[in-house]
Design goal:
This protein has about 290 residues and is an alpha/beta fold. The protein is built from 8 helices and 13 strands. The protein folds into 2 domains: about 120 residues, NAD(P)-binding Rossmann-like Domain (Rossmann fold), CATH 3.40.50.720; about 130 residues, 2-Layer Sandwich (Dihydrodipicolinate Reductase, domain 2), CATH 3.30.360.
């Protein structure tokens, strides 16, 4: 059984993952959350009581010797390197909830440390593996080459949790999964509190991301291929969390990472490019990497 330590209690994902592992036991005996830390100790204790987590610790690094897998779920990406590195440096498998980090230097620090220690490091939006995304992925062989795509979802550019890094990564990761990881450039324009992004892939596919302020928590994806089209509403939570946790635990069991380094970096690079385009008045910005 994989013993999981959760770092961060301010994100709903802490409760979701702990429920799946300890209460619903959807993954059976493969895993159990055995410890949790949160900046708000009362909040961490409430999650522990509800999901039968045995230990609430005063510092994240207290979990290093107690677990086989760390899941870092702080809402603010600037905390992810600080809280993930003690586990990475020990060589433990680590999942960093989206975003991997906000500062690309923090991302690289974690990747370099994982390469040195042998830690299996993963980070992704659970929506990358949501049931509706899996359905669209299954449709891809019948669509032919993707020519255009449209994605929409909520995103608060004024969020106290790192602005667009907290939610834009949901839409971006869906797009990367379905259209391709080789996203080449973006052009972003603000309309009131909403942002419209035009995305260009290296193979010539075009896409739009509607990043919506004050929108309900729903996402949508439409793909147009040379031979057909498909569209789905994408729901967060529920089975998407289960699919995500299954991949995280499988990484701990096998040492095989679900995503490569460039796949971990591309969503963060894309958000930086979107912000650069907005700052420059909507010019096209190449995505570095």
């Amino acid at each position: 059984m994989i013993r999981i330590g959760i770092v961060g209690s301010d994100n709903s994902h802490a409760l979701a993952f702990a429920k799946i592992a300890n209460v619903e036991r959807t993954l059976g005996d493969r895993c159990r959350v055995v410890g949790i830390w949160g900046a708000d100790a009362a909040q961490a204790r409430a999650i522990a009581d509800e999901t039968k987590i045995e230990r609430v610790v005063e510092r994240p690094d207290e979990l290093v010797d107690q677990v086989d897998l760390a899941i870092v779920v702080d809402r603010h990406g600037d905390l992810h390197a600080e809280h993930g590195l003690p586990f990475i440096e020990r060589g433990l498998p680590v999942f960093i909830d989206k975003p991997l980090a906000i500062d690309l230097a923090d991302c690289q620090r974690m990747l370099d440390s994982a390469a040195k220690s042998g830690s299996a490091l993963a980070s992704f939006s659970a929506l990358r593996f949501a049931p509706a995304i899996e359905e669209i992925a299954a449709d891809l062989p019948t669509l032919g080459a993707i020519r255009a795509a449209q994605f929409a979802g909520p995103c608060d550019f004024a969020s106290e949790y790192g602005g667009p890094f907290f939610y834009a990564t949901h839409v971006i990761e869906m797009a990367l999964r379905l259209v391709g990881e080789d996203l080449a450039s973006v052009r972003a324009v603000r309309h009131a509190d909403n942002v419209q992004v035009t995305a260009i892939w290296a193979n010539g596919a075009i896409g739009t991301f509607a990043l919506l302020s004050n929108a309900d928590y729903h996402f949508h994806a439409t793909l147009f291929g040379a031979s057909g089209m498909t569209a789905r509403e994408i729901f967060g939570g529920g089975p998407g969390y289960t699919n995500a946790l299954d991949r995280i635990v499988r990484m701990a069991e096998t040492g095989e990472r679900p995503l490569a380094n460039d796949q971990l970096l591309r969503p963060i690079q894309t958000v930086h490019a979107i912000l650069a385009s907005l700052d420059a008045g909507g010019v096209e910005i190449a995505i570095s990497g």
